[in-house]
Write a structure and sequence with these properties.
Layout (H helix, E strand, L loop, with lengths): L1 H18 L2 H17 L6 H4 L16 H6 L5 E10 L6 E9 L2 E6 L2 E7 L5 E5 L5 E5 L10 E5 L2 H12 L5 E4 L2 E7 L2 E7 L7 E3 L5 E3 L1
Parallel strand pairs: 5-8, 10-12
Antiparallel strand pairs: 1-2, 1-7, 2-3, 3-4, 5-6, 6-7, 9-10, 11-12
Helix pairs in contact: 2-5
């Protein structure tokens, strides 16, 4: 009886694995990565588990032809609308985050505002609260203006896609209270996370970016 039970379980597992489609396998692999990053660390994660990740939020045809020309030769893997906050003044601007096989692009209409090669990516930070803020940390060199501050509607999906493509899962930090980001030219800024009745992102009187 015990031997038959083991054989039966192995047979059921084998049948299930053989029945998993390539698309379903990718979905499960991404969910495993998301679990390793966010489980028990960020609010809203448990509610996101049952929601499948989209392949992309915008199709390649939705991008401006000039942008497609500029990133020609790199296969586009994921595109999503984001809000980017300026490093100086923290003004909110509508942008697109475009992830290819080798780089992340912050796009404004027909312009590429910033390109981040995955090989140079220093880290990714997000808070433990339910906000959608993501900070992409870049190296201190002349090619980069500073760290990228984004707000994403689908934060678990976006961070997971970026981690999988960049193979930088271990560089993600889920922080509490506050985090530091690089403005440029050796300067740093501070972002503070707080709990409130309504979600807000604003520049406080002390000059810090406050996320509620």
């Amino acid at each position: 009886s015990e031997m038959l039970q083991k054989i039966c379980i192995r047979n059921l597992v084998r049948k299930y694995c053989r029945g998993v489609t390539a698309e379903r396998k990718v979905q499960l692999q991404q969910k495993v990565v998301a679990s390793a990053i966010f489980r028990g660390k960020k609010e809203g994660y448990l509610q996101s588990i049952s929601q499948p990740f989209a392949d992309t939020r915008l199709k390649e045809n939705d991008l401006n032809p000039k942008v497609l020309q500029l990133i020609h030769g790199e296969k586009i893997k994921y595109v999503t609308p984001v809000i980017k906050y300026d490093r100086n003044g923290f003004k909110a601007r509508d942008r697109l985050l475009v992830l290819t096989q080798s780089s992340a692009y912050v796009v404004e209409m027909a312009k590429i505002k910033q390109k981040i090669d995955y090989a140079t990516l220093k880290g990714i930070s997000t808070s433990n609260l339910s906000d959608g803020i993501v900070v992409i940390h870049v190296p201190e060199d002349n090619k980069q203006k500073g760290d990228v501050i984004l707000q994403c509607e689908h934060v678990f999906e976006t961070v997971t896609k970026l981690c999988v493509l960049a193979n930088k899962q271990n560089l993600v930090k889920v922080v509490q209270g506050s985090l530091q980001f690089r403005i440029g030219a050796g300067k740093e800024g501070t972002m503070v996370f707080a709990v409130g009745q309504e979600p807000q992102v604003f520049r406080a009187k002390n000059g810090q970016l406050t996320v509620v």
